[in-house]
Specification:
This protein is α+β, with helices and mostly antiparallel strands. Helices cover about 20% and strands about 40% of the residues. Strands 61, 62, 63, 66, 67, 68 and 69 form a 7-stranded antiparallel beta sheet that branches. The chain starts with a helix and ends with a helix. It is found in: Cell membrane; Secreted.
């Protein structure tokens, strides 16, 4: 077959051969790129008369347009010339290179060209690869051209999508500075978890992406590495594994490791987990520890084939119990070493030397250096081994043996085998090159290590004399170098060319000559210039290690005028996940894409035209009148690993800088006052700046910056990049590792909070990594006298404690062994409520350190908040008087009372000031989260309409909107709907979807909101609409007044209708949906008696300008309550609740319907009638400007803002005198300069009454806010609540069961969505591992924690008469004694009058339970002995009691058998 093909090609060549007096070649890149210069190398030989050719690049774009660019050339003498085409405006399409003679011998050939539309590279750098909720994502975008220089573009789009593929934020007005754009994204505290993407699109081209992860995580304080020889043999017998554990600051960790080893058993794509094949061993680790596994006896592996073994270690730190994993994989080989073939060319060429190298190495790549035992190389030349030759070679220092082969003339191929000691290796085939004349050329790069910007030397040898040789270097989609050289009949020649950046990452050299008969004799060689970039950046740190707070100088060296970016990240972050930084491999991968085709031809162009293998391999096209090449019949090797030898046998070496141990500290330093450490970031450096030329004549590109070292004891990884308009991109060769360490430091671990009157042991650990043991003095300071130091004897004699003076500090001495840590503690009792300072120092003769932390102290009981507001209206009068009573219960906790007066000259002022804390309820579900979103829209609309919006408020509001948008997308279903708990719910909610769609539409004018998200939500609502026009609730009913009730769903239908009416851009599209809903509401007018439904329906009809709107408004207005110049609407109260004190408190439903009433009056043009409603709403707000719940706050603020816009007085001037006791008063004034400033004034805690006198012009809002704590159960509970501490509990463990059920009334059998908040006694922390079990409790939809896991928040769909009893577990994590009772609260989220509170106590802990060492006196020893005695006496009884209880629970048949046995015994007796 091969002989036939060769004969056919020879005949075809003869048939097409043109008799002429010369030959030419036109060589160009196979790939063309738009908006670049395309170079063609035109070489001629043997021409006697000038000959002209027309060379064209032409084709058809995808839109059918024709493209043609032509140039004429004349060939008249030997040599090479370059023709340049400017490929501007080249569009997507199919193109060809066309060559046609215009005189002389007729010639016309075409070859297809591959289109590459890539114009630029996009690289994205983030400061980290993984982020926690609430983190700030910092990122940089680099847009570079094909030479890594800044790409000039004014059209760069950047946006971010979350883990649910929702577009979160779009960055407008992106401006590149020398190709670099830097920005940041603030994550919300509850974003969609998973993989987020930064999208970049330049000039409307293809998108580039950079991913990062958003997840909950804790930074590892240490790393665990499993060390083992990655390659062992069956003969070794055992696998040795060493577990290394060290802190991020480099010091060893003590602990215990469980090491597991098991073979990898791949069955298809499944790794079976076979318990019997896992071998586990437990070892002690002090920085490192080792163990061994027997390959045959323990792992059960036989030596039949290569196997893999996984080794995993679970390490537990001794001091803290924290766990960290490490893993590695081992390969078990049959032989200890490997032998491979390194070829200098794919084919051998008869008449030319063929050299190859045999490389012997261990499996880790290190060379085998055996000077005694040879490698036997067996070469066979035909398809049998009869004529094989065998030669022994000794290995050199690189494990290499150079083999020179004299190939027989009749050889058809070479087959290579090798033998070393008792191992045989088959290395593969080498085929023979072909040519018409049996003449060949060979090129070899003789420069040992070609480098950028240095000359590369090439030797050429041929089997015959040559008159001229030609070479081209091709790379990155272009001809880089092209030249013809006369050689004057010689068969050897050497030439040189300069290695340029255009040859990075790879390029190919083609060398050829044309024989007199027209045959092209060619060869090609690959050029690799390593991983060098044209620019560079070096970072020189003034020191490799420093103490926290020291100054560090960083000297940056790069090309002058470069734009520099620095990144410094805590090594702990990189231990979690890498991939955030710019890597050279990514840069070279991008550069390589410029040489790839990005589309395939849809049409066939050109005649049948032979190709030339050396040019094909080099990525070139050739058009020539020379002979066509004989195609080589290739035999592919599937057995050996074959690589090309470039420049001789140079072993590959990777140089890594070994991290040195921290420098020693001079122990004779005189210690001064220790520095207090406070700054603990995860990202330290993320800066960009220009290295501009300064006034000096010779600027060397060096810039030095100074940075303050953070306080974290860790290692920082610092990298950098630079971009120069001339030389392009430069990256640091190796990251700089900077250790922040001091050999002597302290740490402490405080509880989140404690209650006043409790005693807490402040734990302090002192670490000593100095060469000698240290005796240190540890001090706890009490400069502000915020607490008292506690003695154990205080338990016995409280009088001594009261007489003892408050100490301003206390000290203890401790000895810390070298390379170890010691702990001490101080027992204190806080004397004040609020934050108290815990300042600790530790000093020895040679070193010192200090820390400052804040401990939160709260009053016992539950805090109750009250707010009384007055709308001071001086628009139509000169004076207003008001009297405000402050009602503090007699049983309020002492020192828990706080009274405050505040004033502002704007109706929305308090809400604007406290936009981030409008209500005091949690935000754990999809509807509650909207409170972080919607009020910001209201504020921006309001201030924009009044032209009072300032940049600070705008920035703050947009930030909250963006984070709220992120969070809300986490509650989205695949069908575009939303529900309270997202995909944890079976389906989306009609109500919440309408709320979200309306709000997203309102927000779209301020932040990026994906229109597709809004559209999808509206489609969902359209599809759930019933045939009668109503919108039923298809999801969980959480807000029964809105979603259910006796009004046939009119409230929800009207609410959803409002969503469609307010979406102006979609109103026409959904006109039919809107009309059906309107008709349904109007048809049910006569049956509509529910105030809540009537309120929303009235507003909806006013908004739609419906003909029935006046009738609805009249009916609704008739149901209003008018009192004291104020007006509102109220929900009917059950007869059993008429005397409930909660009826006197603001009610969320009443607020919501009154707010709809206000908006309806405004839509009807009855502004004056709306003023009394506004006055009432103002009195219902809390001190932060919000109301009770989500819906009432959202609707209430919308209503107030609409009216406030209409009654705004630009020149407010109100003076208020607040008399709070006889002869004592405070003055507050509101004027145009402070209208939007919330003024506050603290009043005495015993204030009972405030008399207000206001004068001036305009209006103001005056609030008297007060709070107090109660440690009693709430009055008139609507839930039964029973917390019980189970008998399994002790002083270190809390097992709590909380049972609850709803107390029904005449109207309601069950609650709306209910929330339970369980607080734990001070010092206890919730066991978060039990959250999945809590979620399995009936009706529980979500569980979350707050205040550092000391409070658990449980969300219930609803609570009915049936009792629910969730179980909570907590552990003592901090030593606290004398704990006060802890509260459990449950409430209806949408009706604040439905609630209950109960308290419980943990097992009591005394001072003897928290003291240590000398603090524990004889009193504690006596108590301990008594406790042991009591335990001994009661132990048997408890054991029997417990066993009975266990038997009752576990096996009642055992009791029956026991009773039968006793009965038989008695009868027998």
């Amino acid at each position: 077959m091969s002989q036939f093909l060769i004969s056919f090609l020879a005949f075809s060549t003869f048939f097409h051969l043109i008799t002429c007096d010369g030959y030419f070649t036109i060589v160009g890149s196979k790939v063309i790129r738009p908006d670049t210069d395309y170079h063609l190398a035109i070489t001629s030989q043997g021409y006697k008369d000038p000959t002209s050719y027309k060379i064209s690049i032409n084709g058809t774009d995808d839109d059918g347009g024709n493209y043609q660019q032509s140039k004429d050339i004349t060939i008249s003498s030997d040599g090479t010339q370059t023709l340049i085409f400017d490929l501007k405006n080249l569009r997507q399409g199919d193109y060809k290179l066309d060559v046609m003679s215009t005189n002389g011998v007729e010639f016309h050939k075409s070859v297809d060209l591959d289109l590459n539309t890539k114009k630029h590279s996009v690289l994205v750098q983030t400061d980290k690869s993984i982020y926690k909720p609430g983190d700030k994502v910092q990122f940089r975008v680099l847009v570079l051209d094909s030479s890594t220089r800044p790409y000039l573009s004014t059209n760069v789009q950047v946006y971010v999508t979350d883990g649910g593929k929702n577009r979160i934020k779009q960055f407008d007005n992106v401006r590149l500075v020398k190709g670099v754009y830097q920005d940041e994204l603030q994550l919300s505290d509850l974003p969609v978890m998973g993989t987020w993407l930064i999208h970049v699109k330049v000039d409307n081209g293809d998108e580039s992406f950079k991913s990062f992860e958003v997840a909950e995580y804790v930074l590892p304080k240490y790393e665990v590495i499993v060390d083992s020889n990655p390659h062992v043999t069956f003969k070794d017998g055992k696998i040795r594994a060493t577990v290394r554990a060290k802190y991020t600051y480099g010091k060893p960790v003590k602990g215990q490791a469980t090491v597991s080893a098991y073979p990898v058993l791949w069955l298809g794509a499944v790794q079976p987990f076979i318990q019997d094949s896992i071998v586990r061993k437990v070892i002690q680790v002090d920085g490192k520890g080792s163990t061994e596994f027997d390959i045959r006896n323990e792992l059960k592996i036989e030596s039949d084939y290569e196997r893999y073994v996984n080794i995993e270690a679970i390490f537990e730190e001794e001091l803290t119990g924290r766990r960290q994993n490490g893993t590695t994989q081992i390969t078990v080989h049959k032989y200890k070493y490997n032998v491979e073939l390194i070829k200098e060319a794919e084919n051998y060429k008869p008449g030319l030397p063929y050299n190859l190298n045999i490389r012997a190495s261990y499996h880790d790549g290190s060379p085998l250096t055996d000077k005694a035992n040879p490698v036997t190389v067996i070469v066979s030349y035909l398809y049998s081994e009869e004529n094989a030759t065998s030669t022994d070679y000794l290995l050199d220092d690189h494990g290499m043996a150079k083999v020179e082969i004299d190939v027989p003339v009749n050889a058809t191929h070479l087959s290579i085998k090798a033998k070393y000691l008792d191992s045989d290796f088959y290395l593969g085939y080498i085929t023979q090159a072909k040519s018409h004349s049996n003449q060949f050329i060979q090129a070899r790069i003789v420069t040992e290590k070609p480098k950028l910007n240095q000359e590369i030397s090439v030797d050429v040898i041929a089997t015959e004399g040559m008159s001229q040789i030609t070479y081209q270097v091709l790379g990155r989609g272009d001809v880089i170098v092209s030249k013809s050289l006369p050689v004057f009949g010689s068969n050897k020649y050497n030439f040189r060319f300069l290695g340029s950046f255009a040859m990075v990452p790879k390029a190919t050299l083609v060398v050829y000559y044309i024989r007199e008969d027209g045959e092209i004799i060619s060869d090609h060689v690959k050029i690799e210039l390593g991983d060098e970039l044209n620019n560079f950046i070096d970072l020189e740190l003034s020191q490799d290690q420093a103490k926290p707070g020291d100054d560090l100088s960083i000297t940056i060296s790069t090309k002058p005028n470069s734009y520099v970016g620095l990144l410094g990240v805590d090594q702990s972050v990189l231990l979690l996940k890498k991939g955030n930084d710019l890597e050279k491999s990514s840069v070279f991968e991008e550069l390589g894409k410029f040489n790839e085709k990005t589309r395939f031809h849809r049409r066939y162009y050109g005649d049948f035209y032979g190709s030339y293998s050396d040019f094909d391999i080099s990525g070139a096209v050739i058009v020539t009148n020379a002979k066509e090449e004989i195609r080589n019949m290739r035999i592919y090797n599937h057995h050996g690993r074959l690589t090309h030898l470039k420049g001789g046998p140079v072993p590959k070496m990777t140089l890594m800088r070994k991290a040195s141990a921290p420098d020693g500290i001079d122990e004779n330093i005189q210690v001064t006052e220790p520095k207090i450490r406070k700054d603990f970031p995860e990202t330290w450096l993320f800066e960009t700046f220009s290295c501009q030329e300064n006034d000096t004549e010779e600027y060397d590109g060096k810039t030095t910056i100074s940075k303050k070292v953070p306080d974290t004891i860790t290692s920082w990884i610092i990298t950098g990049f630079s971009v120069d308009p001339l030389t392009g991109l430069g990256l640091t060769r190796q990251p700089s590792k900077f250790n922040v360490f001091q050999p002597f430091f302290v740490s402490t671990n405080l509880p989140y909070s404690i209650k006043r009157g409790e005693a807490v042991a402040i734990p302090i650990v002192v670490f000593n990594y100095m060469e000698t043991d240290q005796r240190a003095e540890v001090r706890l300071y009490n400069d502000e006298k915020e607490f008292e130091f506690v003695e154990v004897s205080d338990d016995e004699n409280n009088l001594n404690r009261e007489k003892r003076a408050i100490e301003t500090q206390r000290r203890k001495n401790v000895v810390i062994k070298s390379n170890s840590g010691s702990s001490v503690s101080f027992m204190i009792r806080p004397l004040k409520v609020g934050q108290i300072k815990i300042k600790v120092t530790a000093t020895s003769q040679n070193a010192g350190d200090g820390l400052e932390r804040m401990l939160i102290v709260v009053p016992e009981g539950v805090t109750h908040y009250k707010n009384k507001a007055v709308f001071v209206d001086l628009r139509n009068g000169n004076e207003v008087k008001a009297n405000i009573n402050i009602d503090i219960p007699k049983n309020a906790i002492p020192d828990s009372v706080h009274v405050e007066a505040s004033a502002i000259g704007d109706v929305l002022g308090p809400s604007i000031e406290n936009i981030d804390k409008l209500i005091k309820l949690p935000y754990g579900c999809g509807e509650q989260n909207m409170l972080n979103f919607v009020p910001n829209i209201v504020v921006l609309d309001y201030l924009t309409n009044l032209n009072k919006l300032n940049p600070d408020i705008e920035s703050k509001a947009k930030k909250y909107m963006e984070t709220g948008y992120q969070r809300e997308l986490g509650y989205k279903h695949n069908d575009g709907s939303y529900s309270a708990f997202g995909k944890n719910d079976k389906s989306g909610s009609t109500w919440l979807t309408a709320f979200v769609a309306k709000s997203f539409n309102q927000a779209s004018k301020y932040i990026l909101v994906d229109k597709a998200v809004v559209k999808q939500a509206l489609e969902f609502l359209k599809n759930v609409q019933s045939a009668n026009g109503s919108f039923p609730e298809v999801g969980q009913v959480s807000h029964k007044d809105m979603q259910g009730g006796a009004s046939k769903g009119i409230a929800l239908t009207a609410y959803t209708l409002i969503t469609f009416l307010e979406n102006e851009s979609f109103k026409d599209e959904y006109r039919n949906t809107i009309n059906k809903a309107l008709d349904y509401i109007v048809r049910n007018f006569n049956q509509l008696e529910d105030n809540y439904s009537l309120a929303i329906a009235t507003y909806a009809l006013e908004l739609a300008r419906h003909g029935s709107k006046d009738a609805f408004l009249a009916k609704f207005d008739s149901k209003a309550t008018n009192k004291d110049g104020m007006k509102h609407w109220a929900k009917a109260v059950a007869e059993s609740d008429e005397k409930s004190p909660w009826n006197l408190q603001p009610n969320a439903i009443n607020i919501e319907m009154s707010a709809y009433g206000l908006q309806a009056l405004l839509e009807a043009g009855l502004d004056s009638d709306a003023i009394p409603v506004m006055k009432w709403l103002v009195t219902q707000r809390n001190e932060n400007g919000g109301f009770q719940s989500t819906q009432d706050t959202v609707v209430g603020l919308q209503a107030l803002s609409k009216l406030a816009t209409k009654i705004y007085v630009p020149n407010n001037n109100v003076y208020m005198n607040l008399e709070y006791s006889e002869g004592t008063a405070a003055q507050m004034s509101v004027n145009p300069g402070n209208t939007l400033i919330l003024q506050k004034y603290d009043l005495p805690a015993d204030t009972k009454e405030v008399n207000v006198t206001a004068t001036g012009r305009g209006f103001a809002i005056l609030q008297i806010s007060y709070q107090y704590n109660l440690n009693v159960t709430g009055a008139w509970p609507r839930f039964v609540l029973d917390p019980q501490v189970n008998r399994l509990s002790n002083k270190d463990f809390l097992h709590l069961t909380v049972c609850t059920n709803f107390v029904p009334d005449n109207y309601t059998e069950k609650s709306n969505m209910a929330v339970m908040e369980v607080s734990f006694p001070s010092g206890f922390t919730f066991d978060v591992d039990t959250i999945p079990f809590l979620r399995d409790t009936q009706k529980v939809k979500k569980v979350e924690t707050k205040e550092a896991d000391t409070v658990v928040v449980v969300y219930f769909d609803e609570i009915e008469r049936t009792e629910l009893c969730p179980v909570f577990k907590a552990y003592r994590t901090h030593k606290v004694a004398k704990q006060r009772p802890a509260p459990v609260i449950i409430y209806d989220y949408y009706d604040s009058s439905r609630r209950a509170t109960q308290f419980y106590s943990a097992r009591p802990a005394s001072l003897c339970d928290i003291c240590e060492q000398e603090d524990c006196t004889e009193v504690c020893k006596i108590r301990a002995s008594r406790r042991i005695s009591n335990d001994t006496e009661s132990g048997e009884f408890n054991r029997i009691k417990d066993s009975k209880g266990h038997a009752n629970q576990m096996s009642s048949p055992l009791i029956i058998l026991f009773m039968i046995a006793i009965t038989k015994y008695i009868l027998r007796v």
